[in-house]
Amino acid sequence: MKLARVLVPVAASLVFQLDAVVLEAQAGKAGFPELPAVSTMLSVQQENAARMQRQKAVFDRKLKEQEQKNLEVVKVNEDLLHHAQSMQKAGNALRHSELKMLQDQLAAAQKFLTESVEQTDDTKATDLDVLAEDRSDLRRRFAKGPVLAGAFFDLQYGPKSKAIDRSICCQNNSEPESLITMLASGIKVETSDKM
């Protein structure tokens, strides 16, 4: 009992150190605070524990759902990355094959052009030497007057007809444009002489 007497004053001093508002709210008939029944405290504690368990279960479920979604997104990203890499490899292979094909076509075209030029090159042909005119023959022909396109017809310049410029007639007659110009000028001169 001595022990009980010693503990009661200590317990009483602890009670008075508590907040006064709490003591007044829980004050009983004698003015001292009354503790709720142990069963009530236990049921409240069990309700709190059950509520915490439900909240934890909901949180864990949401966390697992989010983790599952994240794993699915990672898997989709990996699939897309592999697909993009395979598409890039296929595109590179296609470009390489097209480039090779174009190079082969270009080589064939160059070979064809080289062979065509070699086959049609007449600079060394001895058969065509007959067609080459001597420059002295050309000078003799132009000495008496201009000749259009290798003697289509001769135009004589008289004192009245000055429509054809002699410099045009004496230019390089191998150009088609100059031949047409000389022919047109000659026709104009002939028609003006007949009038």
Low-confidence spans: pLDDT under 50, at least 5 residues?
147-164
Helix segment tally: 6
Q: Distance between the terminal alpha carbons, to the nearest Å?
A: 167 Å
* Global outline: rod-shaped
The string of secondary-structure elements, in order, is: HHHHHH
Task: State the oligomer.
Answer: single chain
Radius of gyration, whole Å: 60 Å
Task: Report the sheet with the most strands, covering strand number, pairing sense and barrel closure.
Answer: none
Strand content: under 5%
**Helical content class:** over 70%
What does this structure look like?
Residues 1-20 form the signal peptide. Keywords: Signal. The chain is an all-alpha fold. The protein folds into two domains: 35-118; 134-194, no CATH class. The protein has six helices and no strands. The protein starts with a helix and ends with a helix.
Summarize this structure as a short list of keywords or feature phrases.
195 residues, 0% strand, 2 domains
Produce the secondary structure layout.
Elements: H1 2-17, H2 20-25, H3 38-120, H4 135-144, H5 166-169, H6 176-194
In short:
The protein has 195 residues and is mainly α.
